[in-house]
Structure formats: structure tokens, C-alpha cells
Design a protein that fits this description.
alpha+beta; Beta-lactamase; eight-stranded antiparallel β-sheet; about 25% strand; globular
Length: about 500
């Protein structure tokens, strides 16, 4: 168990530093200062950070305000959405059932989910419980099915049979929220209660996470809750909470940094919390062990196409069971982020060093959480330091400018003077996909509108049979819909970004 940190690692002298959290530890002061610096640089309204070392919460603090333009301050007890950091709670719930002998990681999932199936019958037969939580099933992400609709969990599970394949089964890493929803249903079938109740009774209650929730519904009546924020046209603006109960086991938990620190204590304690074992050590090790390989270059390119070497010195990147795994400065890191409308979360640990950190913020998109996590590890591990916030912000600004330039290029390439093939009213109708549902196009007073799931907007002619969608929200970028007109002069399909071609209903 490490009692002394090392600063200035190299060929020169080795300098012993006080143990983390002790009086006079300059590293925690440096982390505190850096967190506020990073928050200001990213223009994040609020930020909350907690640090765990050797089963003790040695630092917890909030920064900024709950909502831009209002005085209420954030602190370590402020509630934020943790997004996909929820996934590790789902895998821990499965592990508890496995510890009790009620389940095995290699049990066929379809045998535990009556009536559930995927498009490929062979995959339906072969997929295991472990496959559900390791991002290797090979399905398209199809996030719009849950993120932009009011479908409930049962309906989303039913529609999973219509999701198209993106890769061969177990061939490559492919992030997928849908399979975690199926894993949550396994917990309900085997555990005898809803996923929400299981997480509360078996994890929240023992850890003293009394304010944590699995839904946004209770938040309206709770104090000290952060308001989500996103980038509008030219500034950070508050946005409504997005209720994602329908994909709950993949990302619906809300909690504070101080409460999440107790979750980190359980992880670093190999399943023991305050002397009581909640999860077996074998299960913790399995969750923290590699299951799916993620090519390093592919991972960093997906994070930042303008900087493929975002984290120098990383040699591998993998997915465990609800956790990402990588090396950094010769240490083994276990972490998982969360990203949902207006909210970001990151939980990071170096288990062999017995340290961990939680970073929550109410601004998305941003990378302020990653910047603070890697600053924390730099402070603890020593060696070369980087201004992570500056590097990541510069990369983000380049990408933002690139997106604006692409928009300008599309504008300049627009073919002027064209007209639609059909009279406007002839495009009206319902265009549908078995997985994604209906998009309704209506004609009102000579203009077209569209409603697709919970999103709606106005259509303005762009060129030929393509229309630009002005969505009725300040944070959604404009996009396009292109109609395919048949030889019979009927609009047969509609093509929208991110979804299969929608076929017009008779």
C-alpha cells in the first residue's frame, strides 16, 4: 500500500512527498487550483470533484454555480447526471447475482429474456450475459431509438430485433447502449425486482448514497441539483434535463461527487465497503479485466481527430465489464465517463496505486472532466506534466471551427435556382422504420414541418428534393432530409442523418 508519492521521477534525485490528503500536501492544492482554472477555460457553469486514497475521501469540493446567471453555488453534494458511468453499476449488479449462484457470465442471454431477439437468429442464440456488457455484439448504436423517442424499455427491447448489424459478432469493439438495457432486464428477471430497485437496495443504500437516483423525475423537488448546459449558437445556455429512464441501465443515474466517492471506495476495496463485502473480489477483478480490445489509434482518433496522440505513453486500450482500461505512465487505469444532454461525468482509478477521482460537470460537450482526471494522475505519478485542459480545449476549438467551415462549404456548394420535383403538399406523409419509428411530415399553410420522435422542426427548401431542417431547439444543429421520388411522382422514402432510409407508409 503506497504511503509516499514520488515527484520528479527521472535520472535526478527522487523527492519524497507527503502522503495524499495529509496536511501540507501541495498536490491537492494544485488539483484544487487546476479544477477552477479548467472550469473557467471551458466556461462550465459548475464542477464537482472528489478524490479517494486508501479508502479515505481526502478531497471533495464544488466550483461555480448550479445555473448560469443565478447565484446558487455548487458543492461536493450537488447532483449531476453521471450518464454512462451508470454502466458499472449494472455490471456490479450482475456480479452480485453471480456471487449468489443465480447467474453466470456465460449464460445465454436469450434464455433469460423471454421473447427477446436480435436480427440474426444465430447471434440471438449465442449471445451471453457477458457479451451484453462488453460492446462486442456488432450492432449499430441506434441511439435515436431511445434518445429521441418516448418508447419505454419494453418497446425498445422489442425493437432491438430490427437494429442493423454494423460488424460481425464479437469481431470488433462497438459501443452500444442497447445491450446494457438488455442486461438490466436480465437483472430484473433473475433478481426479482426492477433494475432501479436492485441498484438502490444493493448499492445505493449500503454505500449511503441517499440522494442518488436512477431517474430525473425526483430531481424537481430536490435541493442542490445542477442545471444542464450546452453550447447554443454562440454561448453556453441552460437546457432542460433529459429523462432517459427508457435506457436506464446504460446511463440514467444521477448523483453527487461526494456520493460517487463511496462507489470508488467500494471499487478500490475490491468489493469491501466499511468492512462489509458487497461484491466478491473475483467479480471486481473480472470487471476490471480486459474483455474487448480497442485499437489505441482508433480510440484517440474518435476522441480527437486533430490529435491522435491525445494521451502520450498509452500502449493499450480495452473494455472490461462496464469499465475502460488503459495504461498511463506505466500504471493500470480503470475509468468510465458519462455524457448526456448538458452533463458530463468521469470516474477514474489506478487500483494498484489505491487512488481514484470523480469529476462531474453540467456542460456537455466538453472535456473538462478528462483534463482534470489526467492532471490528477500527473500530480500523483510525477514525471512530465501537461496542461490537459489547454490541449483538449484547443483540439475542441479546432474541431468546432472545422464544423463551421464544413457548413460554409456546403452552403457555397448549394445549387441555386432549383425547385422541388413535387408540389410541397405531396411530400407530406408518414415515413417509417421498424426500429426507429415514424417521422411525420406535414404541410401547413404552404410550408412543411417534421416531427421525428420528440424532435420537431420546420423544413425549408435547400435544393432539388432536399430540405434543411430548422429544429425547434437552440442546441440542435440544423440537418437535412432528402426525399426520394419514384417514377410515379410519389415521395417514397426520406433520408435523415443517422438513421436508415425511412419508407413512406401507404
Amino acid at each position: 500500500m503506497r504511503q509516499w508519492g514520488i515527484l520528479g521521477v527521472g535520472l535526478g534525485a527522487v523527492i519524497a512527498a507527503p502522503a495524499w490528503g495529509q496536511r501540507g500536501d501541495s498536490r491537492l492544492r494544485a488539483l484544487d487550483q487546476y479544477a477552477e482554472k479548467a472550469r473557467a477555460e471551458w466556461q462550465a457553469p459548475a464542477l464537482s470533484v472528489a478524490v479517494v486514497v486508501r479508502d479515505s475521501v481526502v478531497f471533495s469540493k464544488g466550483y461555480g454555480v448550479l445555473e448560469k446567471g443565478k447565484p446558487a453555488r455548487a458543492d461536493e453534494q450537488t447532483i449531476f447526471a453521471i450518464g454512462s458511468s451508470t454502466k458499472a453499476f449494472t455490471t456490479a449488479s450482475l456480479a452480485m447475482l453471480i456471487d449468489e449462484g443465480k447467474l453466470k457470465w456465460d449464460d445465454p442471454a436469450s434464455g433469460l429474456l423471454p421473447g427477446w431477439e436480435l436480427a440474426d437468429p444465430w447471434v440471438t442464440r449465442e449471445i451471453t450475459v457477458k457479451d451484453l456488457v462488453t460492446h462486442r455484439v456488432g450492432l449499430d448504436r441506434a441511439d435515436r431509438i431511445w434518445g429521441a423517442t418516448t418508447f419505454d424499455r419494453s418497446e425498445i427491447l422489442r425493437r432491438q430485433r430490427f437494429i442493423k448489424r454494423g460488424a460481425s459478432f464479437r469481431s470488433i469493439y462497438g459501443y452500444n447502449n442497447h445491450m446494457f438495457l438488455a442486461a438490466g432486464r436480465v437483472i430484473e428477471q433473475v433478481g426479482g425486482m426492477s433494475w432501479d430497485d436492485f441498484v438502490k437496495r444493493r448499492i445505493f443504500d449500503p454505500l449511503g448514497m441517499t440522494r442518488a437516483t436512477t431517474s430525473t423525475k425526483p430531481l424537481a423537488s430536490m435541493p442542490n441539483v445542477a442545471t444542464p448546459h450546452a453550447w447554443g449558437r454562440d454561448s453556453v445556455i441552460p437546457i432542460p434535463w433529459h429523462n432517459i429512464d427508457n435506457i436506464g441501465p446504460a446511463g440514467s443515474i444521477n448523483a453527487s461527487a461526494r456520493e460517487m466517492a463511496e462507489w470508488v471506495r467500494l471499487q478500490l476495496g475490491n468489493g469491501i465497503y466499511r468492512g462489509k463485502r458487497l461484491v466478491s473480489e473475483a467479480a471486481i477483478k473480472e470487471m476490471h479485466s480486459p474483455q474487448t480490445v480497442i485499437p489505441v489509434e482508433r480510440w484517440f482518433a474518435s476522441l480527437s481527430p486533430v490529435n491522435h496522440q491525445m494521451v502520450p505513453g498509452t500502449h493499450f486500450f480495452m473494455y472490461g465489464l462496464g469499465w475502460f482500461l488503459q495504461d498511463y505512465k506505466g500504471r493500470y487505469l480503470v475509468h468510465h465517463g458519462g455524457s448526456i444532454d448538458g452533463m458530463r461525468c468521469l470516474v477514474g482509478m489506478a487500483p494498484e496505486e489505491n487512488i481514484g477521482i470523480v469529476v462531474l460537470t453540467n456542460l456537455n460537450p466538453s472535456s473538462v472532466d478528462e483534463a482534470i482526471m489526467f492532471k490528477f494522475f500527473d500530480l500523483y505519478f510525477g514525471g512530465t506534466e501537461r496542461d490537459w485542459s489547454r490541449v483538449m480545449l484547443d483540439s475542441t476549438l479546432v474541431l468546432r471551427e472545422r464544423a463551421l467551415a464544413q457548413g460554409r462549404a456546403r452552403e457555397s456548394a448549394r445549387v441555386a435556382g432549383t425547385t422541388p420535383t413535387l408540389p410541397i403538399a405531396k411530400y407530406a406523409g408518414i415515413y417509417s422504420d421498424s426500429a426507429f419509428g415514424d417521422a411525420e411530415v406535414r404541410e401547413e399553410s404552404g410550408k412543411l414541418t417534421i416531427r421525428f420522435g420528440v424532435a420537431s422542426g420546420d423544413l425549408e427548401h435547400w435544393q432539388y428534393d432536399t430540405f434543411r431542417i430548422a429544429w425547434n431547439t437552440p442546441t440542435r444543429d440544423r440537418s437535412f432530409v432528402t426525399f426520394r421520388v419514384g417514377a410515379d411522382a410519389v415521395a417514397r422514402t426520406a433520408v435523415l442523418p443517422g438513421v436508415p432510409e425511412l419508407v413512406r407508409k401507404p
